[in-house]
Amino acid sequence: MSASFTIALDAMGGDNAPAIVVKGADLARRRFPGIRFRMFGDEARILPMMKRRKRLREITEICHTDDVISNEMTVSVALRKGRQSSMQLAINDVREGEAAGVVSAGNTGALMAMAKLSLRTLPGIDRPAIAAIFPTIRGESVMLDLGANVECDAENLVQFAIMGEVFARTVLGTVDPTCGLLNVGSEEKKGHAEIQQAAATLREMSGVFNFHGFVEGDDIAAGITDVIVSDGFTGNIALKTTEGTARLIKEFLGDAFRSSLSARLGYIFARRGLRKMRDRIDPRRYNGAVFLGLTGIAVKSHGGTDAFGFANAIGVAVDMAANGFNEKITEGLESFGHFKPGPVEAAAS
Length: 349
Hints:
The protein is an alpha/beta fold. Helices cover 49% and strands 15% of the residues. The chain contains 14 helices and 11 strands.
């Protein structure tokens, strides 16, 4: 896809910054001809990495700053002392219209707080949610919220469902995506009052919204629905459990193939299939959690990813910008009959 967008990059966020940011940007510019970058960080560290990347240097503007938000910094300290940090300046670039989106591998809590304060939420959305793509047996699905909101009421869950449906259509390319509410059981009578109320509202939208019903934890990997909705507390636990299980399986497979001479010989015959499986579940392919519901595009890359993973996070931001994602959220709220006027709209009416 040809992209004519500028993306703001927090060059100093992440475990291996700025190296993975520079290398990731170089990979992304090959995938998206026409893309440009505004890179915020320490120019003295970034410029030497650009010497052998002439084409990247031609499409990148380096915006120098010495301030960095560390992973250990609390949200309150980051908000108070990080006004000139690479993270905050990159977010400001989106707010001021200089960039179509921001990508950072830095402190998740600080990025969420700064983006919410600077970009604000869209009309009709009470709280932003963190969404990410999950590999499934049937392909890919999107799950939200993954940690932005520990407690959610029914209205929050309904808004998450609508944003997830728009994400599945615009980013994953799913036609008429199905949506499920993560619950302790698939039976209609199970779950607390908030999730029951959210389900009732989504069922009322059945003419325009493809609501599957309740799904359980093992339905996530099965791909029963294209969108899985939960509160941030449950979603974050599900995410971390999934990541831990993937690492466990990887370790078990390695131990099994190293256990004996015959097992090592078996690996030689099976390695092509194992590489295919590794590529299918490679977390770098799904890197790039999105803060949905803000007036600007903000993507959070995993802090420990490499250049390939960071390039994919940039790709998520470009896909959202190219498909007019935020505009489609507003359209979705209206088409599903769930638009709730913001202060401006309420005053006008």
